[in-house]
Structures are given as structure tokens and as C-alpha cells.
Amino acid sequence: EGTGMGLSVVHGIVKSHGGSVHAESNPDQGTVFTLLLPRLAEESCGLEHPGGPAPGGSERILFVDDESLIARMAEDILTGLGYRVTALTSPKEALDLFLKDPGQFDLVITDQTMPGMTGMDLARKLLDAKAGLPIIMLTGYSEQLPREAALSGGITEYIMKPVVEEQLARAIRKVLDTICGWCG
User: Fold this and answer.
1) pLDDT higher for 144 or 59?
2) Greater pLDDT, 75 or 36
3) Parallel, antiparallel, or unpaired for β 60-64 and 107-111?
4) What DSSP state is assigned to residue 101?
5) How big is the CA angle at 64 (ends 59 and 70), to the nearest 5 degrees?
6) What are the angstrom distances between the C-alpha of 15 and each of 93, 109, 183?
7) Would you say 13 and 69 are in contact if contact means Cβ atoms under 8 Å apart?
8) Under a CB-based contact definition with an 8 Å cutoff, are residues 47 and 80 in contact?
9) Cβ count near 52 (within 10 Å)
10) 165-178 and 68-80 helices cross at what angle (nearest 10)?
């Protein structure tokens, strides 16, 4: 059972493309979602983004999110940007893998709300094993872990869900380019 972030992610993606999501629900009949997206003009069908292409790299990233669809999408996106990615859906499994060799990852990206262990709890344990490890926290619930609390607890970057590819790519580069000595 997920945390219910799927519709939020869809809304963020649709909104970032200038579209909208409409819902119509009737008791005992179900719910219909209508996604409206603007039509692209033929001359604007190129793949370039207005701010330039999303930056990439070759660093090693551990991505942790209990929703398998999000983990798979992140792995595909980040691998496409050149990163070496290990995507896991279990924070316990991620911790066990990390503790086997803390030097195998340059960056960790974790969701905050996961069953069994929060992203912040995972981050504390990772930082105990490798002080100064860059960690990006993704969350859809800022009330559970406010930005200031996350940053003062050792989180390097804090991003609210839903997040789009370019935003995540730029945050990763910002974190990795700021932290010296971890990448290679």
C-alpha cells in the first residue's frame, strides 16, 4: 500500500506542462479523471528544454522510495542522465546495502514517508556510517518534516513532491558540485 502520492505526481507533471486535471466522482459509480494537455505546435516539438538540457553526471546514486513505480521511473530518468543508480523500495534494504560499503555511493536520494523507517531515520543512520554524505530528501508532506528540521538534521537538499526531471537533475548537480571530495 502506497502513501497516495500517485495522483499528486500526475498532477505535478500535467501542471508543469501547462495542463490540468479534472475529477468527477459519483457514489457507487466510480471516479473519472480527465487530463487536459496543450497541443504542441509542430515547430516546437524538439526535445530541448527552455532552461537548456537537464544536467547529468556519472556519480553513484542510491535512490529510495517505497513506491515501486516512482523508484523505477527515477532509476530510468537518472540512468538516462548518465548516473549509476541503485533504486530500492525498502529503507531497511537500502541501509543494509549501504553499510556493506559506505564508499559505494556518492549521493542518496530518499523519500521521507516510508513504512518501517522514515527517510530522516534512514538519513541519520547513513550519516553515522559516512559523515558528510550528501542526501536529498523528497517529501509530499512538509508538516511531518519541515525543511528547517531536515536541513539541520544533516539533509543537504529538501524537495517537495511532485518533482519533475529537470528540477531533480539540477538539485543533484547543485549538491554534488557543492560537496567536494565525494564524487568520483
Assistant:
1) 59
2) 75
3) parallel
4) -
5) 100
6) 34, 24, 34
7) no
8) no
9) 9
10) 70
